[in-house]
């Protein structure tokens, strides 16, 4: 059950969008309990009870977010009912349904999605007794999976896999210039994965300059404002993008302008964000 990145990014909800969607589902469709989980690999809506009318309302919300798609959205949707939906959430929270088996970030994402539903100002709360028990038990199960089975031993993350790919491509990252877009959890994991590489320099660019500065300092790096980021690309060997921006931060025109002086060495771009931070045309 998967879809290409160009489709997944069209279904991706930022926190504010998820809050608005949940509020709409309650006020317009009368949905009783709901959690909207949106990560780089999935967008899932958990409903209780799941009547046909509620499911139809959910599809309308997804269709509105995705916009017009050839063939419609149903070709990309999957549905679980009853115990199958419980089993699925347990697998998600435990990292068993992730692109990288056993990765731990998804458990925090599941928790954050539940907390967001809890925060929507409606009464009765969207995180009602059934959803509450479902998500708390799924999070507990995820913790048990990682602590009581070998899956948690040396589990990789999307960030660590990205860094390992860069190592394989360059042979070594020693002396290389690395830029990270974003300063959230994924960016922090990238920095952690780079600790042993002896990179030549690190630049972090983030919407909040202070967060970029604090993260860059962990490897004695530098922070740059978003508006100065393109001018730093010319000196970069590896760009790893991981922000939650709803639109590309590296556009083809800006990229070409930044590279006007030409490059004597390759630039590796690893875009870990959904929606993508880098326009696909940049790679062409």
UniProtKB/TrEMBL annotation:
Pfam families: GlutR_N, Shikimate_DH. PROSITE patterns: GLUTR. Residues 2-149 form the Glutamyl-tRNA reductase N-terminal domain. GO terms for molecular function: glutamyl-tRNA reductase activity; NADP binding. The keyword Acyltransferase does not apply. One of its GO terms (biological process) is protoporphyrinogen IX biosynthetic process from glutamate. Pathway: Porphyrin-containing compound metabolism; protoporphyrin-IX biosynthesis; 5-aminolevulinate from L-glutamyl-tRNA(Glu): step 1/2. Residues 164-283 form the Quinate/shikimate 5-dehydrogenase/glutamyl-tRNA reductase domain. Its EC number is 1.2.1.70. Keywords: NADP, Oxidoreductase, Porphyrin biosynthesis. InterPro entries: 4pyrrol_synth_GluRdtase, 4pyrrol_synth_GluRdtase_N, GluRdtase_CS, GluRdtase_N_sf, NAD(P)-bd_dom_sf, Shikm_DH/Glu-tRNA_Rdtase. It catalyses: (S)-4-amino-5-oxopentanoate + tRNA(Glu) + NADP(+) = L-glutamyl-tRNA(Glu) + NADPH + H(+). HAMAP family: Glu_tRNA_reductase. Belongs to the glutamyl-tRNA reductase family. This is glutamyl-tRNA reductase. It comes from marine metagenome.
């Amino acid at each position: 059950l998967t879809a290409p990145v160009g489709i997944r990014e069209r279904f991706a909800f930022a926190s504010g969008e998820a809050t608005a969607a949940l509020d709409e589902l309650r006020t317009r469709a009368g949905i009783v309990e709901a959690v909207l989980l949106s990560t780089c690999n999935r967008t899932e809506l958990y409903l209780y009870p799941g009547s046909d009318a509620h499911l139809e309302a959910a599809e309308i919300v997804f269709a509105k977010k995705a916009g017009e798609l050839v063939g419609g959205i149903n070709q990309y949707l999957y549905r679980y009912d009853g115990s199958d939906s419980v089993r699925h959430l347990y697998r998600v929270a435990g990292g068993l349904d992730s692109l990288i088996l056993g990765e731990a970030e998804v458990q925090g994402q599941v928790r954050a999605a539940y907390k967001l539903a809890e925060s929507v100002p409606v009464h009765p709360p969207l995180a009602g007794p059934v959803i509450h028990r479902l998500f708390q038990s799924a999070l507990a199960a995820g913790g048990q999976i990682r602590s009581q089975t070998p899956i948690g031993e040396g589990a990789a993350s999307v960030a660590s896999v990205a860094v390992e790919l860069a190592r394989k491509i360059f042979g070594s990252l020693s002396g290389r210039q690395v830029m990270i877009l974003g300063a959230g959890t994924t960016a922090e994991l990238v920095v952690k994965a780079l600790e042993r590489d002896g990179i030549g320099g690190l630049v972090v660019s983030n919407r909040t300059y202070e967060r970029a500065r604090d993260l860059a300092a962990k490897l004695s790096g530098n922070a740059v404002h978003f508006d100065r980021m393109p001018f730093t690309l010319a000196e970069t060997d590896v760009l790893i993008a991981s922000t939650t921006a709803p639109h590309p931060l590296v556009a083809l025109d800006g990229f070409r302008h930044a590279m006007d002086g030409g490059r004597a060495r390759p630039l590796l771009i690893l875009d870990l964000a959904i929606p993508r931070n880098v326009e696909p045309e940049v790679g062409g």
